[in-house]
Specification:
With about 425 residues, this protein is an alpha/beta fold. The protein has 15 helices and 18 strands.
Length: about 425
């Protein structure tokens, strides 16, 4: 059995798919769902639809599904655990093609749970968090209302039923199959709740697909008989060395990410550059563009690890995030082969830098901490394959960026004296 994951941003595709890589399954994240894909047991496609209109997002999601689906493959629609983006429209578009939608966005390992069909983050109702207020202050964070607004008929599976008698759970789903329900919303507080859901739904004969964050995906990946026999699984190893600087690129403005940057600077002693949004808005036309680009090059040329961030000003609008990330990536691109390890925080930031330097897919290898994925490019425009870690902006412990930096420091041998030079990039 193979899995197709469709996600709306790059860091989400990676944090959802990493559970399968950790379980020993060959796992690839692709930025281009419509072109030929590497042969892998798990394909996670980033459709980059979070900033599109609901109609555009639905159309692109269906196109990715039709382009990538294979016989015997199971579908997992990755959604943001804090309900950002056009996820409901995307689920509604996939439902006629894939069957009953099993909606379980909880990710207990990162503090996201679902109770009464509503998301909680570390025990705090989602609507009251800064993460939600930044982009969605004018609407409620209610899973059912979002699905109904997208045109789906819904039902709810509460904790008592999920945790109760297996026969009662089987009866519940049998009744669903006889009804007109198109999506069932599943409460979950713990990893065991998600494991129970994964085990049961994986055995159902009816057509269905899963909708969730990385939480449910991790439990599906652990099902012993769902994929290949254990002796057919692969060991995720990485022996490549890139004795060069580590670049940490941060586009997220979340409070979580701010604390992670503070810990990283304190523990690792990284230099920091915060590029003003005004420079990035104008790109190379701005009079200070060349100066900032040179400063980045000087840091990396000196083999100094660098924390590179997008600043914030009074004119800042969250909707310009993709453009600012793209401009930051263009600022880095001439110096990219001075980078032995890349940590990209925020899906838009990760996608921007990889697209700019000609990397369209990653083979995932290991998980640094819950939702923080490490991998290597399957290929790149110039054959350069640095170590890469991606992380959603609002994910992770306060030490997540430091843990990612430490992981790259451990695998990259800094004792070598000659930096690799790739013709065409330097």
């Amino acid at each position: 059995m193979n899995i197709l994951i469709i996600a709306d941003d790059l860091s989400g595709a990676a944090d959802c798919a990493i559970g399968f890589a950790s379980a020993g399954l060959q796992t690839v994240v692709t930025l281009d769902a419509l072109n030929d894909q590497p042969d892998a047991q798990v394909i996670a496609a980033d459709t980059d639809t979070r900033r599109l209109s609901p109609e555009q997002a639905a159309e692109r999601t269906v196109a990715a599904f039709k382009a990538l689906r294979k016989p015997g493959q199971r579908l997992y629609k990755k959604i943001d655990s804090t309900l950002r983006g056009n996820w409901a429209a995307e689920v509604a578009a996939l439902q006629p093609l894939a069957g009953l939608a099993i909606v379980a966005p909880a990710f207990p390992a990162t503090g996201r749970t679902l109770r009464g069909g509503r998301v909680f983050v570390n025990g705090q109702q989602l609507e009251t968090t800064d993460t939600w207020k930044l982009e969605n202050a004018d609407r409620p964070a209610d899973v059912e209302s979002m699905l109904v607004a997208a045109g789906l008929s819904t039902a709810k599976l509460d904790l008592d039923t999920l945790r109760g008698n297996p026969d009662a759970l089987a009866h519940y789903f049998a009744e669903l199959a006889r009804s007109d329900t198109q999506a069932v919303i599943v409460d979950a507080q713990t990893e065991d709740d998600l494991l129970t859901l994964a085990r049961f739904t994986a055995t159902l004969d009816q057509a269905l697909f899963w909708i969730g964050s990385g939480g449910l995906a991790r439990e599906i990946a652990q099902l012993p008989d769902f994929f290949l026999a254990s002796n057919q699984r692969i060991e995720s190893t990485d022996s490549e060395k890139n004795p060069a600087s580590t670049l940490v690129m941060v586009g997220s403005l979340s409070g979580v990410c701010e604390r992670q940057c503070t810990v990283l600077k304190a523990q690792a002693g990284l230099s920091e550059l915060i590029v003003p949004p005004a420079v990035l808005r104008q790109g190379s036309k701005h009079p200070d563009w060349a100066t900032w680009q040179a400063r980045i090059g000087e840091q990396l040329e000196g083999w100094s690890d660098l924390l590179l961030r997008i600043g914030r000003d009074e004119a800042f609008n969250p909707q310009e995030g993709a453009h600012l990330s793209t401009m930051l990536a263009e600022m880095v691109e001439p110096h990219f082969t001075k980078v032995g390890g890349l940590i990209a925080t925020g899906g838009e930031t990760a996608r921007a830098i990889l697209t700019t330097v000609g990397i369209d897919s990653l083979q995932l290898l290991a998980e640094v901490e819950a939702g923080v994925a490490f991998g290597r490019p399957c290929a790149s425009r110039h054959g350069y394959r640095p170590a890469i870690i991606t992380k959603a902006g609002a994910f992770g412990t306060d030490r997540a960026l430091y843990a990612a930096w430490q992981h790259l420091s451990d695998i990259n041998d800094r004792s070598q004296l000659q930096r690799p030079r790739i013709q065409g990039l330097e």
